[in-house]
Amino acid sequence: MLKDIQQLPDDRGIEIDQVGVSNVRYPLTLPLLEGGEFNTVADVSMTVSLPHYQKGTHMSRFMIALNERNHHFHPDSVHIVLEELLERLDAQEAYVDLNFPIFLEREAPVTGQKGLLDYRCILRAMMDRDGESDKLIGVKANVASLCPCSKEISDRGAHNQRSEVSIDVRPTGESRVWFEDLVDVAERSGSCELYPVLKRPDEKFVTERAYDNPKFVEDIVRDVAGDLSEMLNLERIAWFYVEINNFESIHNHDAFAKIERGVAGRLVSPKRGTFVESIKS
What we know:
Elements: E1 16-31, E2 37-50, H1 59-67, H2 78-88, E3 93-107, E4 114-128, E5 133-146, H3 148-153, E6 160-171, H4 179-187, H5 200-212, H6 217-233, E7 237-246, E8 255-262, H7 270-280
Antiparallel strand pairs: 1-2, 2-3, 3-4, 4-5, 5-6, 6-7, 7-8
């Protein structure tokens, strides 16, 4: 019998919040709002808490728990993976993070030319031995924005740019919140949507549409928060976090805004945490 080093005691008296594996690329099958499924590849992280008296965790058991899904991982089976991690690793808390792209078909506004646009999505889930659990889902989508001030003061044109809309929500109970729903919220918040293919008539349309619908970063974040607040009032979600970054075209800096509302659970938005870290540094 080979010696189990991880099971040796540790005398430093320090618990580890999360330890495990990250940057695991694994197939993911995602159900779609309008029916059918979408196959993608997720970057997976799986972690557990580690008590102060144990030297290490067993990394191979994370991969065993994941691969017992018969190479067919599905968002609805995340709770099964969490339960297996708690059992196999004798842990008090288990966490699974998924980061993956989806591609949705978009049709050009005038010519009808179709193409695929990519969106980044996250799914984060945790469970403890007492059966308490938490889940976050999120999307990141790009829109076009045009500056109201620039339009007002200029005789010709106005500066515009691409804006990144990041949304995280905490669904309530068994409530289903679709990634496509969050993408729609993000895309209608800007001065104009983005499209994968634009012919000249389409380019004219989106240019004029943005010009007729100017928005500051403050306008975009408030519009997104307004839609998410409706979901909050309908108890579809318990919490949301929205973050907007305008990649300014005439400044050597970005414009930023964020809004957070509701009751946060035990999971923390990775976008919020990243920004806090960057400010501190």
